[in-house]
Write a structure and sequence with these properties.
Chains A, B: Pfam families: Aminotran_1_2 (PF00155). The structure is a homodimer. The first copy, chain A, is of the alpha/beta class and about 400 residues long. In chain A, about 45% of the residues lie in helices and about 10% in strands. Chain A folds into two domains: about 5-45 and about 300-390, Aspartate Aminotransferase, domain 1, CATH 3.90.1150.10; about 50-295, Type I PLP-dependent aspartate aminotransferase-like (Major domain) (Aspartate Aminotransferase, domain 2, 3-Layer(aba) Sandwich), CATH 3.40.640.
Chain lengths: ~400, ~400
């Protein structure tokens, strides 16, 4: 009785549920402390203490009808002012509240952008390995997701294949930097190259190609690396941002979209994002947390906790003989599997209570995602399990 | 450059913006206290003090990673347990957490239900006067909204026309009780009749017709009237609920869907709602406010404040000669306009700084919506403006 679009998703859901149940089964046998769940992306670092203080301040100082009430569907103007000032300062830009739409996380942001841009059959290009939800978001609006195969030497966009895959139907390109699952931050050179290809193809086909930079991990970066700002490279660009990772607030569904000031059709697009927020049923980003963000722009979680995890696990895996790029951001490792079949590798891993996600789930077989947003002590306890797993293939 | 679906909406948006600008213009000339904005549905009654206490308790007692973290996309199980117990107690039901999906308000709930149920060209029937957003929600999934004309004698569903308009394509029927804009609560007799028609047509066409009762005003009722529970009338039924009105939290986007235990295809539908929450970009209802609701189930705003407003304005309009059903719930009056052209009437009203919404916006011309969720003192000050308006037609 459910819709055709949902039927397959419901059928496939049993596989996801099976994995979840397997985790619970293992925990019941071996104890939760001896099951190493590296499959999830739920931040384990606590939200900054400032968040609680900001909530208290708001509840004590602002009118409850204002704090919990409706506002413009694009969000409170004062909060959008603060965010634009923060970005102006960080990237030397000239944004105002008109460039900012508050969204229900990055997922909400991506959906209102695709609702705004896509006609049925329009093409959305993204780069493997890619976040699997892009397929669903594109399908919500009857678009077609086109995958550019991975360049596994750098995990930056494969530019030659991008050029080939752009057609007159290409409406959107999505990049994700720092990348889930590789942790790679797209370089200045890569963004320049990417932008020049898009400019060239816009001219060739006389179309508009919009570039969305999905950046929920922008603040989760190591070793003082900077994430370049896409708005400076390409006119028809958006940023999709979320506080799920940078403030460890994934359940609160709070983020924003930035619309490049130089974008073609700016006014209509800004208006459409506002309406899409309303009619897709978001109405507006949750109000209290909008106001919390307005007071927390210079607040971040302690990234060193993730860095310590990365270093421990990365060094151990390299010593074991894994091939892996050292991630510059996000909280995942994405090593090559020692056998070609990444699904078989993940099955083998379960024998040692290691729960991992095969690279095929990200359109990149022969690799595996290991999510290290878990406790340092648990990673330490898991190291011998990796030893035993690797020994299978020696 | 924006999608075809959004183009018209963006074009029409200028009319809405014009009304908003007109309100601001009037306020700048006459002072905000002398402009009577009866057009909005933003609750003016404060959220109960309990809400603030519940937030403080949660922040002090529960782990921040749990309170602000991801959970099952259908919501925290303990909160869904509490809601099912609350409903079991209120309506003598036998629900469990499996029947409850936490949603981003009623708007989020309606969207995940329609995503779950609709194939393109499927028909959704609703009853005028109706909430205009139903059109957009249906259009999001390429369904077709079919409007049953109003029965202006009772403002209950027009049953004869309903029977005629059900086709093999009818997948969903939406009712809204207590109703926006009429304030009518659908009676036991009406719900029985409605259900028997749907049962009959399901058999005739060998289809499933799902009934959604959209109930954001369920707790905003007067004179001890009870809102009957749709789950007891019809197997294939859902409730869409929101705390926007009952707790004055419209900006927080928190509500739930109830799936009738006896529904056909229950398991697939429950699973699909869970996935739809995720892939439409809601991911989950905002986490802190889920937990707040778990502690606030027996809390309500002071409905007497709305009742006093209703009585003041209703009595005044009746004395002026308006024809109007006395609303049993919600916070709107929906009188007949003294001239046939309700849009002209609303234009005339502006001359006296009265901002009203024409019934045509709800598919019911010749009527007008007056939203009395504003201060009693402001309503008092506005009464002479209604006198002057009515005098135009004497």
């Amino acid at each position: 009785m459910i819709s055709d679009k949902m039927k397959n998703l419901v059928a496939n859901n049993s596989a996801i549920r099976a994995m979840f149940e397997e985790g619970k089964r293992l925990a019941s046998i071996y104890g939760e402390e001896n099951v190493f769940d590296y499959s999830i992306g739920n931040p384990n670092v606590e939200p900054p203490e400032n968040i609680k203080n900001a909530i208290n301040e708001i509840l004590n100082e602002e009118s409850p009808n204002f704090v919990h009430g409706y506002m413009n569907n694009s969000g409170y103007e004062d909060v959008r002012d603060e965010i634009s000032k923060f970005l102006n300062n960080k990237y030397k830009l000239d944004l105002s509240n008109k460039n900012i739409v508050m969204t229900c996380g990055a997922a909400g942001g991506l959906n209102i952008m695709l609702k705004t841009l896509l006609n049925p059959e329009d093409e959305v290009i993204t780069f493997a390995p890619y976040f699997g939800e892009y397929k669903h978001y594109t399908n919500n609006f009857d678009g077609k997701l086109v995958i550019v195969k991975p360049d596994t030497s750098t995990f930056e966009p494969n530019m030659d294949e991008l050029r080939e895959k752009i057609t007159p139907k290409t409406k959107v390109v999505i990049i994700n930097t720092p990348n889930n699952p590789t942790g790679v931050i797209y370089s200045d050179a890569a963004l320049k190259k990417l932008s020049s290809i898009l400019e060239e193809k816009q001219k060739e086909f006389n179309t508009n190609i919009y570039l969305i930079s999905d950046e929920p991990y922008r603040e989760i970066v190591y070793d003082d690396v900077e994430v370049p700002c896409i708005l400076k490279y390409y006119k028809n660009s958006f940023i999709g941002y979320s506080y799920s990772k940078s403030l460890s607030l994934p359940g609160e569904r709070i983020g924003y979209v930035v619309i490049n000031d130089d974008m073609n059709d700016f006014e209509n697009i800004a208006c459409s994002l506002n309406i899409a927020n309303r009619i897709l049923g978001f109405v507006n980003a949750p109000s209290l947390f909008q106001r919390v963000i307005g007071k927390s722009l210079n607040t971040e979680v302690d990234v060193n906790i993730y860095k310590r995890n990365r270093d421990l696990l990365y060094n151990h895996l390299i010593n074991l003989g894994f091939e892996c790029l050292k991630p510059q951001g996000a909280f995942y490792l994405f090593p090559k599997t020692p056998i070609e079949d990444d699904k078989k590798f993940c099955e083998d891993a379960k024998k040692f209570n290691l729960l991992l996600v095969p690279g095929s789930s990200f359109g990149c077989s022969g690799y595996v995602r290991i999510s290290y947003c878990t406790s340092y002590e648990k990673i330490e306890r898991s190291l011998s399990a990796f030893d035993k797993l690797m020994a299978l293939y020696k």
